What we know:
By secondary structure, the chain is mainly α. It contains 11 helices and no strands. The protein has 2 domains: about 5-125, Ferritin (Up-down Bundle); about 130-285, no CATH class. It is elongated.
Amino acid sequence: MQSTEKKRRLLQAQRLELTEHILYRKLASFAQGKNKRVLQEIAEMEHHHYDFFKQLTKQDVQPFRLKLFFYYILSRIFGVTFGVKLMEHEEKAAQELYKHIIHDVPHAKDLLEDEEKHERQIIDMLRETKLEYISSIVLGLNDALVELTGALAGLTFAFQKTSLIAVAGIVTGLAASLSMAASEYLSTKAEHNRRKPVTAALYTGVAYLCTVIVLVLPFLLLEQALVALAITLGLGLVIIFLFTFYSAVTRHENFWHKFMEMALISFGVAGFSFVVGMLLRTLVGVEV
C-alpha cells in the first residue's frame, strides 16, 4: 500500500472509531440496565481503537459529525435498539477497512476480531418493549393504512364533502381500532408467550388510531375533497416509508421489497374503493 493511501485509510479508521465511541457513549447515557453496561463497554473499546490509530497517524481527527448527529437523532426518536442496529453497518464498514490495512498494520487483525465481537454483542444485547410488540404495531398500521385509505377514497367520491367524509372516517376508524385491539388481545392471550395481551392490544389500537388521525386530518382542514384525498394518500405513503425503514433496520428485512408491497396493497385498495364509490354514487344517485 502506498504511504499516502495507507495514511488516508488509517485516518479514516481513526475518525470512524472516534465517531463510534462518541455515539455509543451517547446511546449509553439514556439506555438502562444490561444495555447501558454493554454500550459503555463497547464505547470504551472503540476509544482504545482510536488511541491505537492515533499513535500511528500522530494526528488528532474530528468525528464524522453529520453521521453522528443523524444516528443520534434517529436513536432518540426510534429507540436505542434502532440506533445500535444502524451502527451494525458501521461495524461492518470498519471490518472492511481493517481488511485493507491488515497487512501493513498487523495489530489491525486484533481490532478486526474486536469489531466482529461487537457485532455479535449488538445482535444479542438489546430487548426493548417496542420491539417485542412490533408485530402488534405492524398489525395496527397495516390495517389502518389499507382499510382507511380505501374507505376515505370510496367516501370521497360518494359524498364529495370533506366534513362528512371526515366524520365518517373518524367513526369508522375509531370502531375499527377498538375492534383490532380486541382481536389482538384475544390472539395474544391464546399464544401463551412472553407478550402481555393488554399491552399488545394497546400497541395495536394506538397504532391504528394514530394512523386514522393522520389520514383524516386533511379532510378536517380542507374543503376540496380530491385535494384532501391526494394529501391523505401522500401521508399514507410517508407512514409506510417511515415504518418500513424502522422495521427493515430492526428486523433485517428487505426495505424496498417491504415498502413496495405495503404501498401497492394500500393504494390498490384505495383505487378499487374509489371506483366503487363512484359507481355507487351513480347507481344510487347520492346527492350531498
